[in-house]
Write a structure and sequence with these properties.
This protein folds into 3 domains: about 50 residues, Urease, subunit C, domain 1 (Roll), CATH 2.30.40.10; about 220 residues, TIM Barrel (Alpha-Beta Barrel), CATH 3.20.20.140; about 70 residues, no CATH class. Helix content is about 35%, strand content about 20%. It contains 12 helices and 14 strands. The strands form 3 sheets. A 7-stranded parallel β-sheet has the order 6-7-8-9-10-11-12. Strands 1, 2, 3, 4 and 5 form a 5-stranded mixed β-sheet that branches. Helix 6 crosses helix 7. It is globular. The N and C termini lie far apart (about 70 Å).
Length: about 350
């Protein structure tokens, strides 16, 4: 006897073939038959008449790992049919962990509802902790470059040779534990000041293991093309497969006329030349990111407490606005805050106007 029999649904099997009517037989956690199963009986039957029956959806770029400790069931995605999520994106993962990263990771975990102990150190330890939590979704992982920079003690643009070797070990250990490869978040956080040769060196470790390099690229505004070119050069020199994260065609960003089309054309040209590279995108009219991404490095360098105090000074806010505008952050819509609090009503604005509205 079957465990579950889904009857009379329209099968959309993910191959690109037209949908077709069929039944689906399940035993344990495996689909054992698909077709007209008129004589089959099961402990549970589901009438799917008039409904689509399909494999679970794959979210190729997710951040559900940020909130898994507080929300392991991840119902906001699983109830939409997403059963596999690729996480550890944009340079951020919660491993590897060292004492140098304690404040960084503790604060980020608390931001997403977890104030418990950090019981892992290596990426493999971390994956085992997640496995024991019995999450709803299947998870595929990247190790985050920003996290590795913090864990190895890098501050600023230049990593020492010892720090580079530490990060190389972090990448190798993570991939040996099952990571797909490495992600970067070059528009914010610890990754923003990282130089291209540093990333290439780590990408070579990824490439030596036939892994993926995924990137939230350095700029998606006035300097979009340079950021795309940098991404592709890292993939080529590192010998990796590559994924350009959330390349969304947006307007009013400060990008030159036709820049988005040129970015896509550039990636397509590299594919024709043999580079294994793909793009993912999101269905938003505007980009989505962290407000801190437009704050200049000189403000963030001393730490968040110092930055908060400095931002109370109108002269500092004016300087920030000038820097943000010069680097291409031309249009911003504020719709929420990183702490999860309700923000003021959304308003589209220039970077200068955004800083001018901040309270003293």
């Amino acid at each position: 006897m079957l465990d579950i029999l889904i009857r009379s649904g329209w099968i959309a099997d993910g191959t690109g073939n037209p949908r077709y009517p069929a039944d689906v037989a399940i035993e344990g956690d495996r689909i054992v038959d698909v077709g007209r199963l008129d004589g089959a009986i099961a402990r549970q039957e589901i009438d799917a008449q008039g409904k689509i029956v399909s494999p679970g959806f794959v979210d190729a770029h997710s951040h559900s790992d940020w909130s898994l400790f507080a929300n392991p069931t991840a119902e906001s995605t699983i109830r939409q049919g997403v059963t596999t999520e690729v996480v550890g994106n944009c340079g951020e993962s919660f491993a590897p962990f060292t004492e140098l990263a304690r404040t960084h990771l503790t604060d980020r975990l608390a931001l997403y509802g977890y104030d418990g102990p950090i019981t892992w150190s290596t990426f493999g330890d971390y994956l085992e902790v997640i496995r024991q939590m019995c999450t709803s979704a299947n998870l595929a992982w990247f190790v985050g470059h920003n996290t590795m920079r913090v864990a190895s003690g890098v501050s600023g643009a230049t990593a020492t040779e010892d720090q580079l070797r530490a990060m190389e070990r972090f990448v190798a250990d993570a991939m040996d534990a099952g990571a797909l490869g490495m992600s970067t978040g070059l528009e914010y956080g610890a990754g923003r000041e990282a130089q291209t040769p540093e990333i290439v060196r780590l990408a070579r470790v990824v490439g030596s293991r036939d892994g993926y390099y995924a990137s939230h690229i350095r700029n998606r505004d006035a300097h979009l093309q340079a950021a795309v070119d940098e991404f592709l050069s890292i993939a080529r020199e590192g010998g990796t497969r590559a994924e350009l994260s959330h390349l969304n065609v947006r307007h009013n960003t400060g990008a030159a006329e036709g820049a988005w089309q040129r970015a896509v054309d550039t990636v397509e040209r590299e594919r024709r030349r043999g580079l294994n590279v793909l793009i993912d995108t999101t269905p938003f009219l505007d980009g989505l990111g962290m407000m801190a991404g437009i704050l200049p490095a000189w403000l963030l360098e001393p730490g968040p407490e110092s930055a908060t105090q400095q931002m109370r000074d109108p002269a500092v806010r004016k300087r920030c606005a000038t820097t943000a505008t010069a680097t291409g952050a031309s249009s911003i819509a504020v719709s929420g805050t990183a702490c999860g609090c309700r923000a003021a009503p959304s308003f589209p604005s220039s970077a200068a106007e955004t800083f001018s509205r901040l309270p003293s």
